[in-house]
Design a protein that fits this description.
Elements (H helix, E strand, L loop, with lengths): L9 H9 L7 H11 L4 E4 L8 H9 L5 E6 L3 H14 L5 E4 L5 H10 L4 E4 L1 H9 L6 E7 L2 H6 L3 H11 L5 E6 L4 H8 L6 E4 L10 E7 L6 H11 L5 E5 L2 H13 L4 E4 L5 H12 L5 E4 L14 E5 L5 H8 L9 E6 L5 H9 L4 E7 L2 E4 L14 H16 L5 H42 L1
Parallel strand pairs: 1-6, 1-7, 2-4, 2-5, 3-4, 5-6, 8-13, 8-14, 9-11, 9-12, 10-11, 12-13
Antiparallel strand pairs: 14-15
């Protein structure tokens, strides 16, 4: 289906043609007839499939002089990206970005004295805009993009207060996410009761456009050596290198600069103003390598990225999918490399059971040789019936009483239980070994 077949304003059709938007993606073809008809919807689709246009086009097409539209996203980086998407298609509309940056005060005054058509903001600022009376007009459409991340970051109470202020019978509500789960559905039920759910895929664990590669060297002990060896072989146009921690990202950035690679660093320690400047330069292809944390793993769309490198894997498997989702977008192939470390065998195995097919590459003589790697898997710790019942009780109770940061609290409780049982298991094994040694020592003394 083509965009020109949609019932859009002539100005929007011109903007779409000017920016070379011709054919709808699968999810856009399913969603746009519903959102253009001002109906509420929950959208679930893999990263890079064009979910943003599923709400940008209906909002711009259905603008009303008496109402405003609100788009709420979890991070400043994603807010800037969504804001750019509106500016790309809106010519004379009043689009405002409120994220607490240097231009924030001027934008707040503009919002107070002029009715904005669209406001793109974060959960904290969205609530403040209403509580401090910057927005006094009725809201026509509210959008929660990357809603699972918004709730997982602990913004449930902010969303709850916001919806109690703006919710009304004529309000169009749109939620977008690359992933869904039962607990998220429970949280959304309050605001999206009897709302149509449109999903493009039955699983989040498949992206046919991205290849998954595990890279290692024969000694296994130096991931930095493996990374530098890989960089000498591959020639990416633009590559994201993900680190699990800010400290690791800083170390990797310094390593690349020392080896004269064209690289930049983005993490939470970098100021918002500096991150904005770096994003502009990355989009202009000034850097070949971008070292970052999971700050860039959700929602951010940098067209030039063709390669993702994982320096370590996240403990939560879904974040791996968000990382590799930065490439393989817009029907273009992408490549993901994971630097092998000895503590990730079980994570690799877990992802393999979720139908992710790994290619194993050994770096030898400056080449990538396809060679299977035998993973060193830790045996799962088996719990007794009492412990299993305790674990089930924690999960069951929390799934019925959904609260902010529910995932983090559940994981912490389960981690404590498993850690305690692990220590008990180790103590028991240690006592058995000591007992066996004492028995052998006694036998030797008898023989003498």
């Amino acid at each position: 289906m083509l965009f020109k077949q949609l019932y859009l304003s002539s100005q929007l059709q011109l903007s779409l043609a000017h920016n070379n938007f011709e054919k709808l993606t699968n999810i856009q073809e399913k969603v746009l007839p519903t959102t253009l008809a001002k109906k509420s919807v929950i959208i679930t689709s893999n990263t890079g499939t064009g979910k943003t246009l599923c709400y940008v086009l209906p909002i711009l097409n259905n603008l009303n002089d008496q109402t405003t539209n609100l788009v709420v996203v979890p991070t400043k980086e994603l807010a800037r990206q969504v804001y750019s998407s509106f500016l790309l298609l809106a010519s004379k509309n009043n689009i405002q970005l409120v994220i607490g940056d240097n231009n924030n005060q001027a934008r707040l005054q503009t919002i107070k004295h002029q009715k904005p058509d669209v406001i793109v903001t974060t959960p904290l600022w969205a609530l403040r805009l209403f509580q401090e009376k910057y927005i006094t007009h009725q809201v026509q459409t509210v959008v929660f993009d990357e809603v699972d991340m918004t709730l997982d970051l602990g913004f449930f109470n902010h969303i709850n207060q916001l919806m109690s202020i703006i919710d009304h019978t004529q309000l169009q509500k749109i939620a977008c996410s690359a992933t869904t789960h039962d607990s998220l559905a429970n949280q959304l039920k309050k605001y999206f009761a009897n709302t149509k759910v449109i999903s493009e895929t039955n699983t989040i664990w498949s992206n046919q456009l991205v290849s998954h590669n595990l890279v290692y060297t024969s000694d296994f002990v130096n991931p930095n050596k493996t990374l530098l060896g890989l960089l000498k072989i591959i020639k990416p146009f633009c590559c994201l290198i993900f680190a699990n921690t800010i400290k690791d990202s800083q170390m990797l950035y310094e390593l690349l600069i020392q080896n004269q690679y064209n690289a930049c660093l983005i993490n939470k320690d970098i100021s918002s103003r500096e991150r904005k400047r770096l994003f502009n330069e990355i989009n202009k292809s000034k850097y070949q390598y971008v070292v970052c944390t999971d700050l860039l793993s959700r929602g951010v769309d940098i067209v030039a990225i063709d390669t993702v490198i994982n320096y370590g894997l996240p403990n939560d498997d879904i974040w791996y999918m968000h990382r590799i989702g930065r490439t393989g977008r817009n029907n273009k192939p992408g490549t993901s490399y994971t630097i092998y470390m000895q503590n990730i065998d079980n994570i690799i195995n877990r992802l393999s059971h979720k139908k992710i097919n790994w290619n194993y590459f050994l770096i030898s003589n400056g080449q990538l040789i396809n060679k299977p790697l035998k993973l060193r898997l830790r045996k799962p710790l088996r719990f007794d019936k009492q412990t299993n019942d305790q674990i089930r009780r924690i999960i069951f109770t929390n799934s019925k009483r959904v609260k902010p940061c529910y995932k983090k609290k559940i994981k912490e409780q389960l981690r404590n239980i498993k850690q305690q049982k692990k220590h008990e298991y180790i103590d028991k094994k240690y006592k058995q070994i000591q007992l066996q040694k004492n028995i052998e020592r006694t036998k030797k003394l008898k023989h003498r």
